[in-house]
Design goal:
4-stranded antiparallel β-sheet, mainly beta, 194 residues, 3-stranded antiparallel β-sheet, single chain
């Protein structure tokens, strides 16, 4: 990515100016041409790969992404009843979603964050009659962006020494250690009460 802007330079002898190398050919690396790394915008909104064979961000062509992805669904409430409890259950972590945290947003307002294995977020004060836009925003961590990528599987911590371990030659992107963040199962809107 971005190699169109890269210049390859050399100098014949020490002390001479750098000059461009001519006739350099740059080919796309393997991680950019595999079908699983499709960077279509449709993967970033409204479901972001739910129901796809490969739902994690790194399998969708974003192996170094460290931000957040919003998964949205619309729910219709025909007769809102304030005496009842409306909740958004987040699928259990690791199987249903994976990230540093997940946030539930209802009709543009934050209803809360999830950091545990599975949680019910009470959204009764945010829902209304008619269409309700509900989103679950999954947040990643800087590990995929900053690494280390070649020191084996490291989770939860990194220290300066972990960046000093690397293979002799640059491995293909598929061999980098990245974490598969994302939402893997749909969430819902549940009604409790009499």
């Amino acid at each position: 990515v971005g190699l169109a802007e890269v210049q390859f330079l050399t100098k014949a002898k020490e002390g001479e100016k750098l000059v461009p190398i001519k006739n350099v050919t740059v080919k796309a690396s393997s991680e950019l041409v595999i079908d699983s790394h499709d960077r279509k915008a449709e993967y970033l909104i409204d479901g972001s790969g739910l129901g796809q064979i490969k739902p994690t961000w790194n399998q969708q062509g974003m192996p170094f992404y460290a931000g957040k992805v919003e998964y949205s669904q619309t729910f219709n409430i025909e007769k809102f009843d304030s005496s009842k409890k409306y909740s958004v259950p987040i699928p259990p972590s690791r199987k249903g979603w994976y990230g540093s945290t997940a946030q539930v947003v209802v009709n543009g307002q934050s209803a809360g964050f999830v950091i545990t294995d599975s949680s019910l977020i009470d959204v009764a004060k945010f829902v209304k009659d008619g269409q309700n836009e509900i989103s679950v925003i999954v947040y990643g961590t800087p590990k995929n962006l900053l690494g280390p990528h070649h020191a084996g599987e490291l989770r939860g911590s990194a220290w300066p020494g972990s960046f000093h371990r690397a293979p002799e030659h640059q491995p293909p992107g598929a061999n980098y250690d990245t974490i598969g963040y994302g939402l893997f199962e749909p969430f819902g809107l549940f009604l409790f009460g009499k």
